[in-house]
Amino acid sequence: MRNLNINGEAGLEPYTPTAQNSGGPAASDGFYSPEFRGDFGAGLLDLHAMDDTELLSEHVTSEPFEPSLFIPGVNKAFENDFNATTNWQQKEQSDADASASLFSANEKEISSTRENNVAKIKVVVCKRPLNKKEISRKEDDIVTVSENALTVHEPKLKVDLTAYVEKHEFCFDAVLDEHVNNDEVYHATVEPIIPIIFQRTKATCFAYGQTGSGKTFTMQPLPLRAAQDLVRFLHQPIYHNQRFKLWLSYFEIYGGKLFDLLSDRKKLCMREDGRQQVCIVGLQEFEVSDVQVVKEYIERGNSARSTGSTGANEESSRSHAILQLVVKKHPEIKESKRNNDVNESKAGKVVGKISFIDLAGSERGADTTDNDRQTRIEGAEINKSLLALKECIRALDNDQIHIPFRGSKLTEVLRDSFVGNSRTVMISCISPNAGSCEHTLNTLRYADRVKSLSRSGNPKKDQTVNSLPPSNRDVSSLSLLATADVEDVYERQPEVKVVDTGRRPVEKDVYTFDFDKQPSTFIGREESGMPSGPTDREKIEVNNSYGGSRSLSVYSSNSQNSADMEEKVRKVSPPRRKVTREEKPEKMGNRTKKDGGGSDLSTQNSMQSNSNNHNSTNDVGRRRYNPEPPTDGNINAILEEEEALIAAHRKEIEDTMEIVREEMKLLAEVDQPGSLIDNYVTQLSFVLSRKAAGLVSLQARLARFQHRLKEQEILSRKRVPR
Ligand SMILES: Nc1ncnc2c1ncn2[C@@H]1O[C@H](COP(=O)(O)OP(=O)(O)OP(=O)(O)O)[C@@H](O)[C@H]1O
């Protein structure tokens, strides 16, 4: 790792740091058995030993583990995952027991409710702990997590060089702090989706974030967990009798090209068939009927991945790695006719699938300044695909007929995850150190944007579904498929339209806050035109690195001046439930099993209502979709313009800061005895003209971009009438 403190901000921080929030006393490194290290040591997408990026050991406190409300019984098996004495054989036995109880439940009662309750887009933020290097540099942990909200305490300097902290607050579907274990991540992200894979859902789970923020680490255990649950479902007679099978493939997109990670990095071609279905020619799929086999394939694929070094991660993923688990229904064929896996795979009809994407690092600064040309080119390619992905998610959640998946190879490959009955889970990984503040804010803004587009993020919907009796929540959603052939069921899928209660409120509260003089004072609020969410007064628990847990009160009363610290707090939704699990760090990238204060995130999140209207609309769109829409050619241009606009905005802010500095200097000079007022007037006039010119140019750029977006939207509507 060359430079974690990319922005060099830490050195400028005169504010008072406090003890690092490292989670308690160190635990013994030898806590885990060799078997355990073996199981997960070279796990999914992991990047060798932690060397200087290794994180400090943390204390593990023993708390009772709360089983998921979503799959009762299953968690017993999960608990065993992290038991040092557990081996896979034992676990499979317990899995079998768990599934027995799982399917004896009252399945028919809930049926399609489950599908509708799983949010179409879900955004979960994962904060990693400070690593050794950051701690040795005495960098502050500037991210505090409270329930499903988090605050970034950005250290800043005023133009007169006074230090202050700008606070940025965000709310997401879930925010998982550094103490959260793998199970919690799984419960909060993928678990709710698993049953609806059997109802023709194409799901995508991806991790997004700055290089070194923990994407690989976070994504690593998820496919294995998912496979475990899928296999469990498949063992049920209802699916077994219909010859449902699970298939696994694993490939990467590197430099715009596809490589099979399970077939000696064979180069792959992407083709579209007559129905605009994307197929990856030559991609090897393997039938997997037990988790041990899944684990082996994953490890094999990991070792074939492209990694490189970035400014912030020596072992950085320079490719997007995509692991797909596909459930297929197979026609009856005689054993003797089975030539090989590939043929059998082709014979099966896809029922549903889940794709896990470990995206390459999203960092821009380090890649463009610190690294060689190749790394910079990779960075540009990566950014392009990330932008395209964002555009697709935006279109998907707006029910747009035209999904701009041609914006990049990544989105093209994932085309079928953007149409029809799709679900997306975005895991935003953030680094907690002050030096990563800018990147952390970028990641959170991206995530916030994705989330704010999501109507499924409406808290009202959560409440509605949360009122379901627990018994119903616990039952698996299999009944639709229980008695019918899967194809029949597809035809009969009910279309449920949930009334859209409007976008989530986005407000900006601007108030001053002094950690030592509470309460803080509200000094203004900007409404962004969306319905308001937070109430007049809110209390937010802040566990900060500046002195522990604080209650932060926000008054929507008159403004008052206050101390040096200013905050701008962005509120998107009120906090819901807290998930905090103690974690024992593990060398090879797995969060440890720990029990905590009773989170039911999976249930909570699966409680979010959704509109099936999406599905029908998008299906129609897909049927009528023009394979060569003119706007596809423009998508790159739009993405570039968007980037340019954001860059211009940043530049404008920097210029303004510079100008303000000059103004302050002018004021200081003019205040001196004997100063020349003529000089002052001339210089001020010059400075103000620059200021005005900067603003006008930014406004013009903004107007152009707004126009482009509108144009694009109108075109796509015209092309495919709803
Ligand atoms: N929650 C966590 N707990 C403990 N260690 C973590 C955590 N998250 C990340 N790490 C460690 O931080 C380092 C960087 O993580 P990782 O490689 O997952 O980052 P990344 O976001 O995938 O980076 P890149 O985009 O460059 O591939 C690794 O050594 C990893 O083990």
UniProtKB/TrEMBL annotation:
ATP binds at residues 209-216. Residues 545-562, 602-618 have a biased composition (Low complexity). Belongs to the TRAFAC class myosin-kinesin ATPase superfamily. Kinesin family. KIN-13 subfamily. One of its GO terms (biological process) is regulation of cell wall organization or biogenesis. PANTHER family: KINESIN-LIKE PROTEIN (PTHR47971:SF8), KINESIN-RELATED PROTEIN 6 (PTHR47971). Residues 1-30, 452-476, 521-634 are annotated as: Disordered. Residues 639-670 form a coiled coil. It comes from the Eukaryota. Residues 120-453 form the Kinesin motor domain. The lineage of its organism: Eukaryota, Viridiplantae, Streptophyta, Embryophyta, Tracheophyta. Signal peptide: none annotated. Residues 580-597 have a biased composition (Basic and acidic residues). GO terms for cellular component: microtubule. Residues 464-476 have a biased composition (Polar residues). It is found in: Cytoplasm, Cytoskeleton. This is Kinesin-like protein. GO terms for molecular function: ATP binding; microtubule binding; microtubule motor activity. Keywords: ATP-binding, Coiled coil, Cytoplasm, Cytoskeleton, Microtubule, Motor protein, Nucleotide-binding. PROSITE patterns: KINESIN_MOTOR_1, KINESIN_MOTOR_2.
